[in-house]
Specification:
235 residues, alpha/beta, globular, binds hypoxanthine
């Protein structure tokens, strides 16, 4: 039966879903990876696609921007469509000097300024973590590529207006990148006993604007992130 934000039927989604933020990107990923992709939902322009990738079922659906939006889709996919694994494939802004634009960050954990996980366990500051199984599969697929980094990101509620001192402090704490969705995804997966991972291409660097990537570079690096996400989806 349809949920408030997804009109698909039970069984329309594969156990693994790749989840970019942008609905247009979701469509492009589906076309790129699955010649047999079928659109299974399109509420509010958030298309969901299911097909076969490397002989295994796979779905792709966008999250929209920010933790509240992602939370709606991830919760409905996990609770009403039998989805077991969601792998976010997106971008992040570089924070630490140890990453540069074009690197891929596999987010082992996600700090956040959001209160989205604050009721998870009263009295405890919950640590939003990736699924170890998915993390290990993505890391193995990277085959030691030095441009693939594994560590913490920060999931912020605001794109604009964040104090620069906070970004500096997060960078000093070794945080690789800043984005807006991973912490909520990890919290929802933990709460529901499901699996989640975020594989992020560093699209720019907060402390070095000279690092902006060429369109060609952006596409190549995005393909790398996508291949790691597929490895996690099918592990
Ligand atoms: N914040 C800042 N810079 C970024 C982000 C973000 O969420 N995503 C990509 N670059």
């Amino acid at each position: 039966m349809a949920t408030p934000h997804i009109t698909a039927e039970p069984g329309d989604f594969a156990p693994a879903v790749l989840m970019p933020g942008d609905p247009k990107r979701a469509e492009r990923i589906a076309q790129m990876l699955m010649p047999d992709a079928v659109k299974v939902t399109d509420v509010r322009g958030i298309g969901g696609y299911t097909g076969t990738c490397n002989g295994k079922p796979l779905s792709v659906m966008a999250s929209g921007m920010g933790q509240p939006s992602l939370s709606i889709y991830a919760t409905e996919l996990f609770t009403s469509y039998g989805v077991e694994r969601i792998i976010r494939v997106g971008t992040c802004g570089g924070l630490s000097r140890d990453v540069q634009a074009g690197d891929v960050v596999i987010a082992m954990g996600a700090h956040t300024d959001s209160s989205i996980n604050s009721r998870m366990c009263p009295g405890i500051t919950f640590a939003p973590l990736a699924s170890w199984q998915l993390l290990a599969a993505a890391v193995a697929a990277a085959e030691g590529d030095p441009t693939v980094k594994v560590g913490a990101v920060a999931s912020r509620d605001k794109f604009y207006g964040n104090p620069i001192e906070e970004a500096e402090r997060l960078a000093a704490l070794g945080t690789f990148g800043v984005e807006m969705e991973a912490a909520a995804l990890y919290g929802i997966a933990a709460n529901l006993g499901k699996q989640a991972l975020a594989v992020l291409t560093v699209s720019d660097h907060l402390f070095d604007s000279s690092q902006d990537m060429s369109a060609e570079d952006r596409e190549t690096k995005f393909h790398k992130a996508l291949s790691l996400a597929v490895a996690a989806a099918h592990c």
